[in-house]
Every structure is written in C-alpha cells, then in structure tokens.
C-alpha cells in the first residue's frame, strides 16, 4: 500500500498545496465537484489514484 501525506503551512504552503491537489485531480480525471466521470471503464483500477485518494 502506498500513501502520501501532504502538510501545507502558511499562505504560500497552502497555495502550493492547493495547486498540487488541483493537478492530482486533473491527472486522474476527477471532476471539480469531486466525482469521477461516468465514462471510466468499470473494473479498471488506477493504482496512482488509490495512492492519493483512498
């Protein structure tokens, strides 16, 4: 099992952290409302997705 822990401190840290999470969501096809697109293949697992979003 892989895990990622992100700690954001201060204004700059929070801004960089927010940009990182936006990029993670973009890379894994997560919609702005937090939902997965319905056109994803059922049964196909994305290991990188499970690392960030478990």
UniProtKB/TrEMBL annotation:
Species this chain originates from: Crithidia fasciculata
Organism lineage: Eukaryota, Discoba, Euglenozoa, Kinetoplastea, Metakinetoplastina
Pfam families found in the cross-reference section: Tubulin
Name recorded for this polypeptide: Alpha tubulin
GO-annotated molecular function: GTP binding; structural constituent of cytoskeleton
GO-annotated cellular components: microtubule
Residue stretches making up the Tubulin/FtsZ GTPase domain: 4-54
Gene Ontology terms describing biological process: microtubule-based process
Classification via InterPro entries: Alpha_tubulin (IPR002452), Tubulin/FtsZ_GTPase_sf (IPR036525), Tubulin_FtsZ_GTPase (IPR003008)
